[in-house]
Amino acid sequence: MPARLKLFIPLILFGVLALFLLRGLSLDPKELPSALIDKPFPAFSLPALGTEQMLNQDAVSGRVALFNVWATWCVSCRVEHPYLTELAQQGVAIYGINYKDEDAAALQWLQQLGDPYIANIADREGTLGLDLGVYGAPETYLVDAQGVVRYRHVGVVDERVWTTLLQPIYAQLQDGGEG
């Protein structure tokens, strides 16, 4: 190999690496599929928020429900919270997964903003979030009555997301369909 050509090897390697990095930075986590779709909700045994009463997948299954990953440090969670409260008032079953948060802060948040959740799983160390493949909060999982994950949404659940994405699947699952 000529000596001059060897001088260009670092530049070529840099160019290839730059292309891979640029491609990686353009990935939108909302477009990344969940490995859990059509698989059972992960097994867990974690305390209910603010208590040491243990919850597991049996305690939160048996009905079609949303599982909302949220935290007090999450600005977007504050944005979506009023709409989740509205959905809960309409009869939508919602379980909370309080993700890597302090119980006292989370309980204060729910006292001030309202509590749309049937129960809140305190995922203090993020173990359930890891099993779910959570990228960050908020994320919402739609789970059927048999405890199978049917859909995952990354980002805020608002009226548009509910009516165009989640509600049609939720209704189909309520009617006994598979989503």
TrEMBL record:
Naturally occurring in which organism (per UniProt): Pseudohalioglobus lutimaris
Location(s), subcellular: Cell inner membrane
What are the Thioredoxin domain coordinates in residue numbering? 35-174
* Membrane topology of the entry: Single-pass membrane protein
Report the family membership. Answer: Belongs to the thioredoxin family. DsbE subfamily.
One GO MF term: disulfide oxidoreductase activity
* Signal peptide location: none
Q: Which Gene3D superfamilies match?
A: Glutaredoxin
The protein in question is named DsbE family thiol:disulfide interchange protein
Q: Which PANTHER family match?
A: THIOL:DISULFIDE INTERCHANGE PROTEIN DSBE
Q: Which NCBIfam families does this one have?
A: dsbE
An annotated GO cellular component = plasma membrane
